[in-house]
Amino acid sequence: MPALGHHSLFDLHECDPAKLADRAVVREALLGAIRAGGGTVVTDAFHQFSPHGVSGVVVITESHLTVHTWPERAFAAADLFTCGPTLDHDAVGRMVAAALGAQRTECRTVERG
Amino acid sequence: MPALGHHSLFDLHECDPAKLADRAVVREALLGAIRAGGGTVVTDAFHQFSPHGVSGVVVITESHLTVHTWPERAFAAADLFTCGPTLDHDAVGRMVAAALGAQRTECRTVERG
Questions:
Q1: ipTM (interface pTM)
Q2: Is A89 marked active-site?
């Protein structure tokens, strides 16, 4: 039986710390990638931590996209989970990476269900 | 250097389909597991799909807990991502599994960053 969910884990290295520290930039990185990929946003929630770092989750009709940022380490972890073929995981990962200024991306993909 | 994030992927099999189809039950499964584990909820967003299935994300100060359910397959996929030692991943996974009536859980853990 085919997997129900496709889950990509993007580790984004050597990002721009100023972008990672800015809730609005991080939010737009995720929402822009979903829009560009043809996904549909249901709702989103982003939180700026003190002294730094942003966590954000976007519920999409295709499932979810999340991110956590560590400006002090120039690192962000993003996850894309989808059920169905609508979204191109590689393209979404590249767009998020570009928006956060990542110089290097590691991607692991896990089939779920 | 130690990993920045600890990410557990729980595949919950043979769940109770009625629980998986009920947004309120699914939301309480996640929030209850976070509370019981000593985590702190920042915000949450849950969505009931038509004809069935629930997607939900909880932003916690420790990072996030998400779930997607397939009542028609008695399956749910839950992810717990944390930075820091506060939450016991196994305990949170067991609580979510119990709340959704899962008979079998597969867990994969991925170190991030």
A1: 0.88
A2: no
